[in-house]
Design a protein that fits this description.
The structure is a single chain. With about 270 residues, the protein is α/β, with parallel strands linked by helices. It folds into two domains: about 200 residues, Rossmann fold (3-Layer(aba) Sandwich), CATH 3.40.50; about 60 residues, Orthogonal Bundle (Helicase, Ruva Protein, domain 3), CATH 1.10.8.100. It is built from eleven helices and nine strands. A seven-stranded mixed sheet has the order 4-3-2-5-6-9-7, with helices on both faces. Helix 6 packs across helix 7 and helix 7 packs across helix 11. The radius of gyration is 21 Å and the shape is elongated.
Length: about 270
């Protein structure tokens, strides 16, 4: 991958750029990881591809060849100007703070080699919507990717696992080692594919707060944790019995489906969270 590094360095020199640590800039240089990511996006038959952090175009140049509508979100002002000159639509700024959903069409796909520091927050933001977002193909820090796909009772299982698996069918696509980036990050990555799945959660914000509450003391007995909440005034014991949940169960032992059912039962009995 020496030639890819040379090309990256040459492009950066032309633009007067150097990798910015505060933006988490680690440019993808492995052609196989790039190929698998682009093929996964193409297979989703997107009406619009939204790429976060296009950088110098490792993925973007391949997306352009697909001849699909493309929209970019980039925080680096120099790189924004680089893509504007190529006449690619781009939104400048932090995707967590800008309303990028206004650009979406039905069957849009979100993708990108995400800066690790925003990856989990962006995934959480995308759990309930936007409704036009059909799927995602995203790079995560390996540890975060493992948490997203973790199963109940495992060490990695937690808030990210429940939220991701309630709103998406998630599958592993490929690994990305340290040498697959320039400059090298401190941790490896994984690319995951998310397919939106139907759900019955009407208030996603309340559900997020509920799951956060449940995992705030993950090793504590969940029933006792919920009974101590002043805002919860319903018959929590009765709900547990109705769902055939042990009074000794802990949050880390509930499946995503059980979390959704428990949340629904609480709402139906007019318990306020």
């Amino acid at each position: 991958m020496r030639s890819e590094v040379t090309l990256i360095k040459s492009k950066m020199e032309e633009l007067g750029l150097s990798p910015k640590k505060f933006l988490g800039q680690h440019f993808l240089i492995n052609s196989l990881v790039i190929k698998k990511t682009v093929e996964a996006v193409e297979a989703l038959d997107p009406s619009l591809i939204v790429e976060v952090g296009p950088g110098l175009g490792a993925l973007t140049d391949e997306f352009i060849l697909l001849k699909r509508p493309l929209f970019l979100v980039e925080q680096d002002s120099v790189l924004c100007e680089y893509w504007r000159k190529k006449e690619i639509p781009i939104l400048e700024g932090d995707i967590l703070k800008r309303d990028w959903s206004l650009q979406l069409q039905v069957r849009s796909v979100l993708t990108g080699n995400l800066p690790y520091q925003i990856a989990s927050r962006l995934m959480i933001q995308c759990c309930p919507g936007p409704v036009e977002l059909k799927a995602m193909v995203l790079m995560f820090q390996k540890e975060v990717a493992e948490r997203i796909r973790a199963k109940p009772c495992s060490k990695s299982y937690g808030l990210l696992s429940v939220l991701a698996q309630c709103f998406w069918n998630v599958r592993f696509l490929t690994e990305a080692s340290l040498s697959d980036f320039y400059p090298r990050p401190k941790v490896a990555g994984q690319v995951l594919v998310f397919h939106k799945k139907p759900h019955s959660i009407k208030d996603s914000t309340a559900f997020l707060l509920f799951v956060k509450l449940c995992f705030s003391q993950r090793r504590k007995i969940l029933l006792n944790r919920l009974k101590k909440q002043e805002k919860i005034k319903g018959d929590i014991v009765g709900i547990f019995d109705k769902m055939n949940l042990s009074h000794l169960v802990r949050a880390e032992e509930l499946s995503p489906e059980q979390f959704m059912s428990l949340f629904k039962q609480i709402n139906e009995t007019q318990v306020s969270i």
